[in-house]
Amino acid sequence: MIKVFGIIAVLISVTNVLLVSGMEYGQGCSRNPCGQNAICQETLGGRPVCSCPINYSGNPLSYCQKGECNDHIDCRLDQHCMNNRCTNPCAGKCGIGANCEVVNHVAVCSCPARYRGDPLHQCRAIDPDEACHPSPCGVNTQCRVENEQPVCTCLASFKGNPITGCNHECESDHDCGSSQYCKNFKCYSACEQCGKGALCNGVINHRPQCECPKTYIGSPFTECRPECYGDVDCPSSKPACIYGICKNLCEGACGVNANCNLRGLTPICSCPKHMTGDPFVSCRPFVPEDLCRPNPCGSNAICTPGHDNTGKERPVCSCPAGYTGNALRSCQRGECLANEECPDNRACINYACVDPCIGKCGISAICSPKNHLAVCTCPNGFSGDAKVSCRQSRTLPIARYSRSLLKQFNETVADIEDDVVPKV
């Protein structure tokens, strides 16, 4: 098809030339019969021939267009000049799967990473394990590829040179270190044979010395565990789980000789009925003095051991000397202890300063307090015992009764003094 169009174009050009030559016969190129930018040349017969100059293209009879480039340097570095045009030099240059990079107007073909082959024809993916097929390693080894290079290692439980071959790490315990043992042809720490939660106290002849921690139960070669994880794991005799141990909370909670009873998980300490004391320290047998410890009486009262009407031991409360009041509630210090603490016309009776005449003299007698004493006398015109009764006297000669009246008066004063002086 391209050849056909080429022949047609040549015929058209020749026809145009002929037409130009026929129209302007004998004039040649003087009338410039060619197209824009075209070159006109006359043949030997004077006929004009039109053509596009170098680096131009087009129809010389109408228009010749200048090309994009004449050389590679006229194009960018990633292009080259072909048929006066800047094009991609990689187009159709490299093989299947290859990369193309333009360097100084030249297409450079290469295979991508992890690919190999002829980049001008075809690149194919590399098998990741290709370096290990066939394996360059010895027997009982494993080959793996790292950075496209084979790496050889011994299989599990084998040791040796992986390039020449590997052997079992051990056949018996004696092939291992003194603190190891042989299992499945591999050496392990002998302490690994101890059970869960057990302690390893060293190794003797490849055998571990296993034991359970203190307060733990179980087998040191299988599992050691706490006696309990919660109260529900404990028996009723030791109902509390404390740090993995079942305990009776009464142990060590109470004092000497004291009783202990659990209320839930709370220890309740008490002294036995026949004893007293601090149940958290010590309990001892009762003594009579314990009835007054602590003092059950009122403030300022004195407690002394005694007995009630049935003969049972009971505390007896009383106010001390110089105090008055209800000993079961409170005793208050009295107003006085002796007459000297009272005014001259008052006497100290039952620790209070009172009138010493109260209830001391007889009927119709006169009482005069003096020096804390009640002085009783019968009034004028009366006679009798002033401490008992005074009665109106009859008129008699003075000489007859004067001595007897004086004697009676002296006896009365003496009796009053005996009655008024308080007995402490």
From TrEMBL:
Organism (species): Chironomus riparius
Extent of the signal sequence: 1-22
InterPro entries hit by this protein: Dumpy_DPY, EGF
Any one Pfam family match given in the protein's UniProt record, by short name: EGF
Domain of life: Eukaryota
Assigned keywords, A-Z: EGF-like domain, Signal
PROSITE patterns registered for this protein in UniProt: EGF_2 (PS01186), EGF_3 (PS50026)
Domain EGF-like: 25-65, 288-332
Protein name (database record): EGF-like domain-containing protein
